[in-house]
Write a structure and sequence with these properties.
alpha+beta, Nucleoside Triphosphate Pyrophosphohydrolase, 2 domains, 6-stranded mixed beta sheet, 9 strands, 23% helix, 28% strand, globular, binds zinc ion
């Protein structure tokens, strides 16, 4: 198996032999693929992204050459080896007294979608601290116990989402307007009937949705 970077081509389709297929955005079709195929394509997508951004050595600035079937970039000048990196991000459903905290981020493509809070892990911080810090920064809510749920690779461009439940210790919400447009506590009934209440939930194949659905099912 191999992957080719055609991102510089204006129209990549004529570069393929006739009738071989079409190009689709992986993010759009990942949910329709088998887990095996999605994982392989995500791997290729992640490696491509990393390769394109590591053409030059971060130590000495010299050009790098791919080795080990593209899984290592080796500097032609100082021989430093550069490996693909994956950035850990935490994504969490904060729950308190039968309600869950969902927010609307400026980044969301749909104006009325509410989802779990999320953010990147910072150097020197453990995952529980990252959850507590992100929730407090974005919503002003203090959290106590943090419990791991599941994870999802997110190679757009180079993350893995680590999903948690977090116990909310305070009710008052004070959003960070740089990050969020809104955040609210929602009951299970409101989430179950979200369309009637005028909001959308994240896509069914997302870890955010799994966190929400599993919390709903645990009633
Ligand atoms: Zn170098």
């Amino acid at each position: 198996m191999f992957a080719v970077d055609l991102s510089s081509a204006e129209d990549p389709l004529p570069l393929l032999p006739d009738g071989l297929g079409a190009f689709e955005d992986l993010r759009g079709v990942a949910g329709t693929l088998s887990a095996d195929h999605a994982a392989i394509l995500a791997h290729a997508r992640g490696l491509m992204h990393w390769r394109i951004r590591h053409r030059f050595c971060g130590v000495c600035g010299g050009p790098c050459t791919p080795r080990s079937a593209g899984h290592v970039m080796v500097c032609d000048s100082c021989q430093a080896q550069h490996f693909p990196r994956t950035d850990p991000a935490v994504i969490m459903l904060v729950v308190r007294g039968g309600r869950a905290l969902l927010g609307h981020s400026h980044r969301f493509p749909r104006a009325n979608m509410y989802s779990t809070l999320a953010g990147f892990v910072e150097p020197g911080e453990n995952l529980e601290e990252a959850v507590a810090r992100e929730v407090f920064e974005e919503s002003g809510v203090r959290v106590g116990r943090v419990v791991y749920h599941s994870s999802q690779p997110w190679p757009f461009p180079a993350s893995i989402m680590l999903g948690f439940y977090a116990e909310g210790l305070s009710d008052e919400i004070q959003i960070d307007p740089e990050e969020l447009r809104d955040a609210r506590w929602f009951s299970r009934a409101e989430i179950r009937n979200h369309k009637e209440h005028g909001f959308l939930l994240p896509r069914g194949d997302s870890i955010a949705r799994r966190l929400i659905e599993d919390w709903m099912a645990a009633e």
